[in-house]
Amino acid sequence: MKMLYRTIILKEISQRRSQLITSLLAITLGITVIVGIKNITVFSEKAVSLEMDALGANILILPKSSSVQDYYSADFQDEQIPEEYINTLVNSSLAGIDNLSPKLNLPIQLNGHKLVLTGILPKNEFQSKSVWQGALGIFSRPKGCGTVSVKIPGINDQPQNSIVPSAGCTAMSAKPVNQMQNTTRRRVIEGLAKNSVLAGSDTARLLGLQTGNSIEIMGKRFIVETILPVTGTVDDSRIFAHLHTVQELAGKPGLLNAIEIVGCCSAISKGLIQEINRLLPEAKVVTITQIVQTQIKTNTVMNKLSLIMLIIILIVGGASIANYMFADVYERRREIGILMALGAGPADVAKIFIYKALLIGLCGGIAGYIFGTVLALFLGPKIAGISVMPIPLFAGYSLLLSAGLSIIASIFPVIMAVKMDPFIIMQEE
Amino acid sequence: MLKAENLGRKYTSRKGETKALSDITLEIGDGEFLCVTGPSGSGKSTLLLSLGGMNAPSEGKVCWNGESIYDWGLKRRAEWRGKTVGFVFQSFNLIPYLTVFENVSVALNLSGREIGNKSREDILNVLSRMQLLDRMNYLPRELSVGQQQRVALSRALVKNPQLILADEPTGNLDPDTAGEVLGMIREMHKEGRTVIMVTHNPQIAKMADRHIQIIEGKLKV
Fold first, then answer.
1. Which ipTM did the prediction report?
2. Which member of B75, B91, B93 has the closest CB to residue A345?
């Protein structure tokens, strides 16, 4: 940069501090609000995603003749769908599925108690599928699915590979849940040996089971790997074992009772159900409407709120900078004339004002990001009941937004400066 | 050589059209000292700005060494001004928040030179010649009017221009200081520069090689 720009811009800014501070304050405030809201929103979405997961799957794939009622009462042992459906889904081009959980229920009797042994497929068996490995495919989550590559303090601080990351699309306050609760709610088990079982809380109490105990089910011995915490659902009175083990015990190899899916709400609203129906015409695809609707509704509200804030900031921040720049050009019209007389061309004059606007924008962006993040860290736990962490990516967005806004708001003042009548320098001060 | 051919300048406002200059034809030779006199509002300053490439005429043209400067693009004209023309104004027109040194260095920078050691040396030489070395870190408001006009002269001189355009450079000065400034302008002329100076004062006009009068936008020789 020419010495000219550096000297003139910095010296001039230091001379007109009050106007500068007002303008800087407007842009800083705007970015602060946006960063604060967005930061809290992102972590709210993550937290609520976990809460939503607690409500269970939002899509069910059932045998054609079964009903949702059958699913909840575990009363559809006579109807099955092929396990091959899993491969069909995983190898399809569908996107927006966060969790896929095939199940087979088998009624059993243990110590005179009627229980249900539920076969589940651990996640590590999905990972062997080629499509899972890539960035795209069925488990790729579209934007707006509430997924951000940041950790939620207290929620994601769990051992790696214990639980798949959350999905969902919504934002409300949510309290952290512990690892075991997640495991139970989401029915996503990373690994499960074929001779291990997970016991629901009621079942464990009923049978007096403890972790590490050995039990015999239908003539096969199992180790109780863990006792699941109370969920308040039918799962509390179940025992979970590896799907293939249960298929073997039930004499139903390659068959399932249901596939539970946690689908991203935006993908559902864009026709995920129809796509699954098209892929699996012999099955019944059911959505748990309430869950999906809640997710979509909350997601929409948060997105609209962010958009409204963004528009307000653009208008207020832009107007403030434009006002500052217009005043600046007007007050400095004599200096512009002097510079032109000294040999400054239109580009030189324009650069002086654009660089200044850029400087204000960048300072406002940096300050706005810092204040917005601090605000979110402070207010997140208070108003949304969630812990929030800084999102470094927002620093880039803040700078881009504030710098872009400053430059756009300066366009007309700069045109005015460039077209200034230099005759003013001949007039007496 | 600077030449104005049938130069005319009109201003249009809500109150109608005003003719600031009308059919001015003028030739100023290299190294010539020309004084322009005339009553207030006669068009002297408009003529000076037009000759300096700052005010495009409504009619006619201004030529520098045979080339019409208003046929050039804005950038080329600005470069020409930066390198060739040194303006001196009645109200000094110093940039108020820059020091004496910075005011002079901005002019040098706009003439296309980066501010390195050689440029600094040139600036210090000019300031020394104008007896401003001990004031180089002062702001214009901390200087006397005479000193301010000397800064303006330094600013015009530092880029070693061929053409000096001075608009009533002594208008705001007391007689002693005015004499001092006129002496410096005469020195610039003696160094071979072309000087065009606008003044009200007929006595001052006498020191020029040639004297023209502008009355109601028209040239009276």
1. 0.92
2. B75
Alpha carbon distance A46, A148 (integer Å): 8
**Strand, helix or coil at B35?**
strand
Least Cα separation, residue B96 to chain A (angstroms): 9
Cβ distance of B98 and A8 shorter than 8 Å = yes
pLDDT bracket for residue A354 (50, 70, 90): very high
Q: How far apart are CA A141 and CA A349, in angstroms?
A: 48
| pLDDT exceeds 70 at position A192 | yes
The answer to the question of residue B175 being in a domain is yes
Total domains present in chain B: 1
Helix (H, G, I), strand (E, B) or coil at A416: helix
What's residue B123's pLDDT?
94
Which residues of chain B neighbour A335 with C-beta distances below 8 Å?
95
* Cβ of residue A2 closer than 8 Å to a chain B Cβ: yes
- Least Cα separation, residue B28 to chain A (angstroms): 20
Q: What is the CATH number of the domain that holds B195?
A: 3.40.50.300
Q: Helix, strand or coil for residue A80? A: coil
Arithmetic mean of pLDDT, A55-61: 72
Short-list A42, A18, A21, CA closest to A303: A42
Residue B9 lies in a domain: no
Q: Which residues pair with B3 in a beta bridge?
A: B27, B63
Q: Which of A86, A132, A78, A81 is nearest to A107 (CA)?
A: A78
Does residue A232 or residue A26 have the better pLDDT?
Answer: A26
First vs last Cα of chain B: how many Å apart?
A: 19
Selected residue of A5, A336, A338, A423 to mutate for chain B interface (largest B Cβ count, 10 A): A338
pLDDT at A175: 38
Which tokens belong to B20? 């600031």
Per-residue pLDDT of A18-30, as tens digits, reads 878 888 888 898 8
Tell me, what's the pLDDT at B193? 94
Mean pLDDT of A59-72: 78
Closest CA to A414 of A338, A326, A339: A326
For chain A, the straight-line distance linking the first and the last C-alpha, in angstroms and rounded, comes to: 31
Establish if B2 belongs to a structural domain: no
Q: How far is A399 from chain B (nearest CA, A)?
A: 29
Owning domain of residue B167 = 28-53+78-220
Is A10 within 8 Å of chain B by CB? no
Q: Which A-chain residues 347-406 have CB contacts (< 8 A) with chain B? A: 347-348
B44 CB burial (10 A radius; 0-12, 13-18, 19+): buried
Q: How far is B221 from chain A (nearest CA, A)?
A: 24
CB contacts of A334 in chain B (<8 Å) are 93
Q: Do A346 and B107 touch (CB under 8 A)?
A: no
Residue A428, chain B, CB below 8 Å: the answer is yes
What's the pTM? 0.66
Residue at B191 is within a domain: yes
Contact with chain A for residue B93, Cβ under 8 A? yes
Q: Which residues contact A96 (CB under 8 A, 6 or more apart)?
A: A140, A141, A142, A145, A263, A264, A266, A267, A268, A270, A272
